[in-house]
Amino acid sequence: MAVKAEVNQLKDGDKKGLVDSVETFIFDCDGVIWKGDSLIEGVPETIAMLREMGKRLIFVTNNSTKSRAGYLKKFLGLGLEITAEEVFSSSFAAAAYLESVNFPKDKKVYVVGEVGILEELDGVGIQYLGGEADGDKKVTLSPGQLMEHDPDVAAVVVGFDRNVNYYKIQYATLCIRENPGCQFIATNTDAVTHLTDAQEWAGNGSMVGAIKGSTKREPTVVGKPAPFMLDYIANKFDIRKDQICMVGDRLDTDILFGKDGGLRTLLVLSGVTDEATLKSPENEIHPDYYTSKLADLLTIKASVNA
Amino acid sequence: MAVKAEVNQLKDGDKKGLVDSVETFIFDCDGVIWKGDSLIEGVPETIAMLREMGKRLIFVTNNSTKSRAGYLKKFLGLGLEITAEEVFSSSFAAAAYLESVNFPKDKKVYVVGEVGILEELDGVGIQYLGGEADGDKKVTLSPGQLMEHDPDVAAVVVGFDRNVNYYKIQYATLCIRENPGCQFIATNTDAVTHLTDAQEWAGNGSMVGAIKGSTKREPTVVGKPAPFMLDYIANKFDIRKDQICMVGDRLDTDILFGKDGGLRTLLVLSGVTDEATLKSPENEIHPDYYTSKLADLLTIKASVNA
């Protein structure tokens, strides 16, 4: 029998206590900061208020199609003043993970994924193959033919890829099967992604599933809800995890990521999760608090100024 | 602790007893009858001998890229005289499965797969979309765009597909997510396939993995080692399962399929499994007998004629 869920709606009286108890906010982007290409109401004001209160702000996203630089452009284009150091995408996490394990500079990465991963690998000076360059390749066969592959590929990174094809799947699985010690790294395993707001689109769970389905290997996941990004951030900024509040719209990535990491957690209902799903007996992931949108925190300002 | 494996090599003295004890042989094709485009030594003579002894012969393959008619051409091209009724491919099994559940004639199937599945669906008069027709489609996006999908799609069939792409993955997952009751059928979940003999190629496990990774649904598998084809064959020919001998080269599909179904089992080492793998303590799938190749049975003829 499931225990009845304790789910606390964030009340005005809780807000200052929550904000005062942490020094850092980690925000998921899609469904918290923006939906597709539109800012969510009240976000710039809330972010400005938290900055004035001296909070460190960090923006994380499982989307690997853009690099940190690509995301920075999106933030600035929406009128949000942030810096590249405040953005952590799963494309960056893949490159940071390879650096953290001292990936040899004479080895290469095979990429199933889009430009964000390639830009981040360039940023840390790691050689790569695949990605966009293999988007139009086909496998045409004659008897006895084999696909040559580079024996220097020592890691396969799999991120969301609109141009996934059999050539890339075979190249990636060949490297994992035949190159001794070749790593298999997934930016995330999200079932769906929001290419547009109009419907759910198959996410990187599909690309990772294609590689798992042939290699029978489990990937090292660097995006949410795996702990790599959180450990990296806590270490880089020397922050205690209990002084971080994770704000997100997804229970099984954002809130799980926060709870597994020992963070405070705040679910916002401005993205994919509705109140019924949160309170359903099937849901076992319970944030510390939930509220309709990030801007609900703004009433702190009113009470401080009053 | 694993129990030490009992693995019996087929000796001359066992052969006649094994053959006499069954009325039907089910042969896997690749690695038993042929390798790629070459017949394995002694196969025509062995098949002729078994026919002379009055045995029923059935040829099964998990490969869905050809239809029964397509396989018949391959058999005849290699000089093996068989009939279409003796061939069971996983493409046929997908169509037979849909017939067995009375798939409505006003509903449609979305196909991730090659021509074999399309031909078999034509054969049973089931409407379909996808397959080869969607092989070159791309997803190009503008804000707010959605991919339209046919609400009459009531099943997605996933088979090996050299032209798998994001369009097909999204279409298939949309149907499974959004069309109530839509079935998800896999011809097989083989990790690798032998497009050519030169190397292992990612198999339908990749295509099925891509759909599972987004839908989080498990497919109904109609090929080996799932029981559907065996039940269909036993029912169609009214054969007792203990009077069937399954001959195959793969432990985790052919021999498992036979053992799960209560058949006699004979592993041949002319395909992907070697003696070391068979006898390894990690292997828990033990055939009744193993032998180097199908033609080893020919010594029965010598002893009968002697």
Briefly, what is this?
The structure is a homodimer of 306-residue chains. The first copy, chain A, has 2 domains: 12-62 and 225-305, 3-Layer(aba) Sandwich (Rossmann fold); 92-221, Rossmann fold (3-Layer(aba) Sandwich), CATH 3.40.50. Chain A is an alpha/beta fold.
Would you give an account of this structure?
- The structure is a homodimer of 306-residue chains.
- Chain A is α/β, with parallel strands linked by helices.
- Chain A is 35% helix and 18% strand.
- Chain A has helices at residues 12-20, 43-52, 68-77, 90-100, 115-123, 166-178, 204-215, 228-237, 251-260, 275-279, 299-305, and strands at 24-28, 34-35, 38-39, 56-61, 87-89, 108-112, 127-130, 153-158, 183-186, 192-193, 201-202, 220-221, 244-248, 264-268, 289-291.
- A 6-stranded parallel beta sheet of chain A has the order 5-4-1-13-14-15, sandwiched between helices. A 5-stranded parallel beta sheet of chain A has the order 7-6-8-9-12, sandwiched between helices. A two-stranded antiparallel ribbon of chain A has the order 2-3.
- In chain A, helix 4 (90-100) packs parallel to helix 5.
- The interface between A and B is large, with 47 and 46 residues.
